[in-house]
Design a protein that fits this description.
The protein has 293 residues and is α+β, with helices and mostly antiparallel strands. Helix content is 32%, strand content 27%. About 2% of the residues have low confidence.
């Protein structure tokens, strides 16, 4: 099988591990930065190339470009979507699909689909205008609450507010910056969350993450710690259902444990491999390659 990986960082951990796993299994693999690719549309023919090589020769493309802008790669994310769409039109399988990645990159869109599918999530609000926000903050919003930007990862753009006044001023600030704010009821969960790594219809690895002192965000790169866990079958099924609700075949599903049962808080289309492999010892990269068939 011939595998193409789109990645903004060709030497990053996840890209290297996927390449190693593919080669160990006898597959051909090439890594391409979206910034280095060219698409030409013409009434008579269409070409998509990387280093002058035809990319339609590949059997499958793994979309690994991160879902937010950072490190000077602001244009690589939409580029990946255009490139992957072109490859899909040419019959190349994309994992995950451009459409599913686009949905997963938007937290509120993801919550809409999860809620519609009957998957438990924290109470959530999307409020447009200032007057509507004032009414919501005073009358409806449970406190403390969490305000999130719809787009962002690694804990960026997540703000805990303890009073209605703070919620209102935070919303006002984000609105002045032309940002849309999603609000959720704060679920303490001992400042812990669960990352379940879904491949196809299975959870291949899971870890419980604990936030560092003074923070409620359990992201490891923010100083959180993690331990490997085995999820109950019902929680595994919930994580798989969450990924499928968004249309993802490979996903990192984040959950909170509550007395009433687990809640899904996010579904990530480009989950990192380094922390989950280091914590669990599972060959997650190999599981992804094996899933390709």
């Amino acid at each position: 099988m011939k595998i193409l990986v789109f990645a903004h960082n060709p030497t990053g951990y996840a890209t290297r591990r996927l390449a190693e796993a593919a080669k160990q299994r006898g597959h051909e693999i090439e890594v391409a930065r979206p910034l280095d690719c060219v698409v030409r549309l013409n009434g008579r023919f269409t070409t998509i190339t990387h280093a002058h090589h035809d990319l339609t020769q590949f059997d499958v493309t793994l979309l690994r470009t991160v879902g937010q802008s950072y490190m000077g790669h602001e244009i690589s994310v939409p580029l990946e979507s255009y490139l992957a769409t072109q490859l899909a039109l040419a019959g190349v399988r994309c994992l995950n699909t451009p459409a599913a990645k686009q949905i997963a990159s938007d937290k509120f869109h993801t919550l809409q689909l999860l809620n519609h599918a009957g998957i438990p999530i924290p109470d959530s609000w999307l409020v447009g205008g200032l007057e509507q926000m004032r009414e919501t903050a005073v009358n409806d919003l449970p406190l403390p609450a969490v305000i999130k930007l719809p787009r962002g990862s690694w804990g960026a753009g997540v703000i805990k507010v303890d009073t209605a006044e703070t919620a209102l001023s935070t919303h006002h600030l984000l609105s002045s910056l032309s940002k849309i704010a999603t609000m959720q009821a704060f679920v303490a969960a001992n400042n812990q969350d669960i990352r379940a790594f879904v491949v196809g219809d299975q959870v291949v690895a899971a870890m419980r993450r604990t936030a560092p002192a003074g923070d409620f965000r359990a992201n490891i790169h923010l100083g959180g710690t993690a331990v490997a866990i085995t999820l109950p079958p019902a929680t595994q099924a919930l994580a798989v259902a969450a990924a499928q609700a968004v249309g993802l075949e490979v996903a990192g599903v984040d959950l909170l444990e509550t007395e009433a049962g687990p809640l899904v808080i996010e579904v990530n289309s480009t989950p990192g491999l380094e922390e989950i492999e280091a914590t669990t010892g599972v060959d997650v990269a190999g599981a992804v390659i094996d899933y390709l068939g």
